[in-house]
Fold this sequence. Notes:
The protein is 67% helix and 0% strand. The chain is mostly helical and 110 residues long.
Amino acid sequence: MIALQGIPHYPFISIVALVLIVYMGCLGGVIAVRMAVSGRLSYWLTAIGALLFVSAVLWGHAEGGAGLTLTLVGVGLALSIFGVALDLVFGEPLPPAIPQEPDRVDRGFE
Length: 110
């Protein structure tokens, strides 16, 4: 039981969880910006939502209190979900793949 007394002073699990949440938010934001730049405009909402979410998780509670943090996290998640939903509903379907001729091993007799 002596070894367990140090756990409340160093919240390792909550720090790792915060780092993973921020990493996933940043990764989602980068993917959303790549999709938006490639022509899917509704992903700009997702990128803005990811920016709000990450900024709220990192600086919201220290700068603006719990109310601002909760609001920014909620708005960020809502914009992210709404951007993906708009793309799923109104996005252009992908063009069909162009069939390619299989490579031949021996072309010497043609």
